[in-house]
Write a structure and sequence with these properties.
Helices cover 43% and strands 16% of the residues. Helix 1 (4-11) crosses helix 2, helix 1 (4-11) crosses helix 3 and helix 10 crosses helix 11 (251-263). It has helices at 4-11, 15-22, 30-43, 49-55, 74-89, 103-113, 127-134, 165-178, 194-209, 226-237, 251-263, 282-285, 297-313, and strands at residues 63-69, 93-99, 119-124, 142-146, 159-162, 184-188, 217-221, 245-248, 273-275, 292-294, 319-322, 326-328. The radius of gyration is 24 Å and the shape is elongated. The longest helix is centred in the C-terminal third of the chain and has 17 residues, at 297-313. A 4-stranded parallel sheet has the order 2-1-3-4, sandwiched between helices. By secondary structure, the chain is α/β, with parallel strands linked by helices. It is built from 13 helices and 12 strands.
Length: 341
C-alpha cells in the first residue's frame, strides 16, 4: 500500500508538504497541488485515519464524515439522520455538517474532517456544490448521494446514484389513472432538473397506457416547498375547471395542496385526490394521510455505508446506490366524482 513518502517522492516534494495538503493545513501553489494530486492518483495512496489515530494514541474507532449541502426540506434532514443512525449501528463515530449556502463554514468542516475521518458521505442536489466540496477532499474515500446528478467522480473513485425517477413518475401516474381520473394536475419540481423531467416522462408513459392524452395534465412548476403547493392549489382553483386529482413531486408540496384545498372548502379525497412523493414522516400525519411514492431512506443509507466500506478496502472502486420507488396507499386518493354531485 502506498505511503505519504511514496506520494512525496513521486511529486518531488517533502512528506510534510503532502501531509499539509491532505489535511488542508496550508495553502499551496497551484503547481504543487497539481503535482500532489497526480501523485496520489498514480500511487493509489489512500489516507488511513485509523492508523493516524493509533499513532496519536487516540480512539481506534473508525470515523465517518457526513456533509449535507441541501435546503430545509424534511426529506433531506430525515436522510441525514438515517445515515447517522446507520453509522452508529456499524460502530462508526460521526463528524457531521448540515448546511445550506455558507461556503466558508463548509470549508471549515472539510478542514476539520480532513485527516480525521476514514470516509465521507456527501449529500447535495446541484453539481456545482458537489464539485466545490470534492475538490477540497484528497485521498479520502467519498460516496456522493447526488440528487439530480447521477454519477459523480472523485479522486478516490466514483459514485453511481439512481432513484429511478421515471419509474416513480410512472407509479404515481398509473395509480391515479387506474382510479379513473382523466383531468389531472401535476405540481412538479423546479424546471430544468433532470429529476423533474424524468418524473414527467414516467407520468406520460402511464397516461398513454390508459389512452389519456398529454393535455390531460396541467403542469405547474413548484420548488419543493410547502408554499409552492399552496400557491399551486389557489392557481388551479381560480382556473375554469378544477382537476379531479393532483400529483405532486414531493410530499411537502402535496401537504400544501391539501391544506389550501381544505381552506377552499374542498373535501379530500371525495372532491379532489392528492398524491405525494418521498414518503416523509409528515405524510402520515397530514389529513387525510397522504398516498405517496416511497423512496426508502433506510435502503439508501445502508447502500451508502456499504459503498463507503467497499471504497475503504478497495480504493478506486465505484459505489452504487440504486433505490427503486414503491407505492404507498393511504387516504388522500379515491375515484373521481362529478364536481358538485
Amino acid at each position: 500500500m502506498a505511503t505519504l513518502k511514496d506520494v512525496a517522492l513521486h511529486a518531488g516534494v517533502s512528506v510534510t508538504t503532502v501531509s499539509n495538503f491532505i489535511n488542508n493545513k496550508k495553502k499551496l501553489k497551484d503547481e504543487t497541488r497539481h503535482n500532489i494530486l497526480a501523485a496520489i492518483q498514480a500511487t493509489g495512496y489512500r489516507h488511513n485515519a485509523l492508523a493516524a489515530s493509533l499513532k496519536k494514541s487516540a480512539s481506534s474507532l473508525k470515523s465517518i464524515g457526513i456533509i449535507s449541502i441541501v435546503d430545509q426540506n424534511p426529506f433531506f434532514s430525515e436522510l441525514f439522520f438515517k445515515l447517522e443512525n446507520e453509522c452508529f449501528k456499524q460502530d462508526f463515530t460521526v463528524i457531521s455538517c448540515f448546511r445550506h449556502e455558507d461556503k466558508e463554514d463548509l470549508h471549515t468542516y472539510i478542514n476539520l474532517m480532513s485527516g480525521r475521518v476514514d470516509g465521507i458521505i456527501l449529500i447535495s442536489l446541484k453539481r456545482d456544490k458537489i464539485e466545490n466540496v470534492i475538490k477540497h477532499i484528497h485521498a479520502i474515500p467519498v460516496v456522493a448521494i447526488a440528487f439530480d446528478i447521477g454519477d459523480v467522480m472523485s479522486l478516490c473513485g466514483g459514485t453511481e446514484f439512481n432513484l429511478h425517477n421515471q419509474t416513480g413518475g410512472y407509479i404515481a401516474g398509473r395509480f391515479i389513472a387506474s382510479k379513473g381520473h382523466k383531468k389531472i394536475a401535476c405540481v412538479t419540481g423546479p424546471k430544468g432538473l433532470k429529476t423533474t423531467a424524468d418524473r414527467i416522462a414516467g407520468l406520460k408513459k402511464a397516461l398513454a397506457e390508459f389512452n389519456l392524452p398529454d393535455d390531460a395534465v396541467d403542469y405547474i412548476a413548484g420548488d419543493y416547498t410547502y408554499q409552492s403547493g399552496v400557491d399551486a392549489m389557489y392557481q388551479l382553483f381560480s382556473s375554469a375547471t378544477l382537476p379531479t386529482a393532483i400529483i405532486c413531486h414531493n410530499d411537502l408540496m402535496a401537504i400544501g395542496v391539501q391544506n389550501a384545498a381544505n381552506e377552499l372548502g374542498l373535501k379530500i379525497p371525495r372532491e379532489l385526490s392528492v398524491m405525494g412523493y418521498d414518503d416523509i414522516e409528515m405524510s402520515k400525519l397530514s389529513f387525510p394521510s397522504l398516498s405517496t411514492v416511497k423512496i426508502s431512506l433506510d435502503e439508501m443509507a445502508c447502500q451508502a455505508l456499504a459503498g463507503l466500506g467497499m471504497k475503504m478496502t478497495a480504493p478506486g472502486k465505484k459505489a452504487v446506490i440504486s433505490v427503486t420507488p414503491s407505492l404507498v396507499v393511504r387516504g388522500s386518493v379515491s375515484e373521481p366524482i362529478t364536481f358538485g354531485q
